[in-house]
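Hey, can you fold this?
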Amino acid sequence: MWSLLLLLCSFSFADNWDVALEQASLKKADVRFDVLDLKQVGGADHKAPYYEMLFGDPLRIPVHVETYREIMIEYSKEPFKAAVSSMARVGLGVRRNLEGDPLSEVAALAKKPDGLVRALEHLHRLGRRPLTVAQAKEIQTKAKALSPETSVQLAFLIESIAHSLEWRERSLADVDPKTLAKGHAERMEVPREEVPADRNGMSRTMRHLVRDVDLLVLMSGGFDLVLAVQKAQEKLAEVKASERFEWSSPFGQISLRGGKTDDVVRADKFPLLIIDAGGNDTYYAGAGADLDHPAGIVIDLSGDDRYLSLPDLESAVDRKERRDPKLTPKFGSAVFGYAILVDVAGNDTYRSFRMTQGRGDFGLGLLWDLAGNDKYECWVQCQASGEFGLGLLIDASGTDSYSALAQAQGFAGP
């Protein structure tokens, strides 16, 4: 299927290239990078097969750009497929659904009468803070206040988070903890040119991380979590105004809020899961992940919402705050983890400095906006960018605007 599609596209471009090149007395075979000449200045070690293919035949680029564009438009309502397709192009293809639904066991557990309790027990075990008998009873009482469907979907998401965090643990099993901590600190720093680096633009710590982190395993957990969120967001549309659920987990706060109130998520919070049914909400935190908070999900179902990295950003990106070292990943940005922001409806504003709006550093970050006329503003390391990870910004519809300075809008590094 894929090969046939490329052949058909290539045929439509052939005559155009011939006509254009003929004006310069050239043929398609003449348009190549001289690999032997380039060896004089060395080269990088970490080159994706997709890059090698396009480097070997640059005239394929328009075909592949158009094909990839069509694929991404088709997958704008299916971010799981968009994520899998994107990583396949950099040599990290994993077909988690090749033999069926990878979340079938998770879904079956969520549907059990005590599914919510079981999901939270799993999460607490991973966080080395097991539930007490009293806590389990408290969860059962809270679950009774939810509709059966809402309870199932909440359990499904929580169990999916625990499931993905187990994948993450396996991916980092061979990494020295000190190296991991140092690498995390480096990733969180403001980009600067004076960092000691090798010919690949990487520090010694980064070289060790690239060697020891199992990116295929790490991405597998991310793909499954994207699929879980994709499945759940449709079924959460009927959350009732009276429904509420709050729980403090070892990995952050879990909140489900029905109704249409205008809520504010404070900047000092690092929530694990927020499900908000409506209202014009303001988020100063959410959908971020780092070494201490390995997952973050926000599903906002309606309202004209604002996602601001700091309260000072009510009207514009303030230059003086851009290099604030205290900034943390948020709004679909992950460092050594998974972060997913889904905004289903409304005219929304996304305004942040860095590590935001679909960014992945040794992780998967997704911002998925399904509808509305939205505004995206950031500085660097944002808007579909990643380094040894995947960053996706998928806006399915609306009249939108995007602005960024660098390392954004389709950036991959180092």
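Oh, and this one too while you're at it.
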Amino acid sequence: MDLNEINLYVIDEQSLGSKYGIGTYLNQITDVAKQYNLNLTIIKLYCGIENVLIIDHLYYTEMQIPICNNGSFFCDFNIAKYSKSVVFILKKYINKNNIIFHLNSTSSPDLMFWLRKMFSCKILLTIHYTTLSINLFGDVELLNNIKSKKRLCLSPSEQEILRSVNLEELSINESDMNIFISNESKSKIDKSYNIVNKNFQIIHNCLKDEFVSIEQNLKKEIRCQFGINENTNIILYVGRIEELKGVKYLIEAFNELLTVISNCHLVIIGEGDFSSAMKLSYNRWSKISFLGFLNRTELNKIYSISDVGVVPSLYEEFGYTCVEMMMHRIPLVVSDVGGLSEIIVDGYNGLKIPVEKDIHGCSHVSSYLIYNKLKLIIENEELRDYLADNARSTFINKNGLSNYSQKMISLYIDINK
């Protein structure tokens, strides 16, 4: 089948994920569509508009579907009703063959049901994150313990976890093909979810190369723009400020680092629990910048001047931030967990720290180990350059867009045969 015969509809639920990981993933898909001239429509759900909106972009079409229509469309909201209504709306606009619906939420069994009922189509599901990863920090043993309990013994939070897991199991089992973004993610699902669907591929996320080597005088100007001195070591974190991401351990490590290396500055980019992070930063506020969410241009400026990147997550399905930092030739300190374990080779393209459990079974990373790794990289210029060069090389060879594009195009062709 020729690519121009395939009609690809990528479904995006408007959420935090659209601003962070899933939003980046959709950008990858649009880059693939541009490269191979795919017939691509991105369908955005739960939009805060009154009527369906269709926007024709240069390389794809965007369809926005409201959460309410003229103030009355399912204001008494439930997902099952909304999913059915979305598909009936799509039926008015889609009258084509060789349809692929590419979903990005693991909580979509109702949507899948109605898509199959109303269209002759194939359904592809990318598993970006799950209840296991977000709520339980990837703790397979904990999920299996919850599953083994009698229903009357479950707490309200445990009941909600099982409800969410059940939706995810239904979605994964109902799709024609599942994409896992790391081997670790697939392994954990196999060990804790009731999955009978054997149709899957593991395709690591990749990025379009945006690295630009800039001169030292321009770096000085950018540092001045952000109020950071030329000779200051910049330590960078990019992501949500929340427990799962391990930001508190980084701030604790940074506070300790300042006692031995004073010319350091921690830059934290992302939104979330600023209040807790600010409390941990007490008396260090002149040394820490909380920049919130930055657009791509401003973010790339920060990448260009950073000396060390840290990804201290308690669990990470894959880790776009890690790949972005590798793209920008930044030496890394990362948690040895999830997809990060597959990206980073300890001592070659980054340094790893283990995720451990305390006596109560709660996951954590050692602030001291983060401090130790940061100190090692900052004080050893030869090691810093070695890790940075290998990080950049790894990105080019394994995480560039060309690798991803070829795999996705093959998948779209194969699934539609």
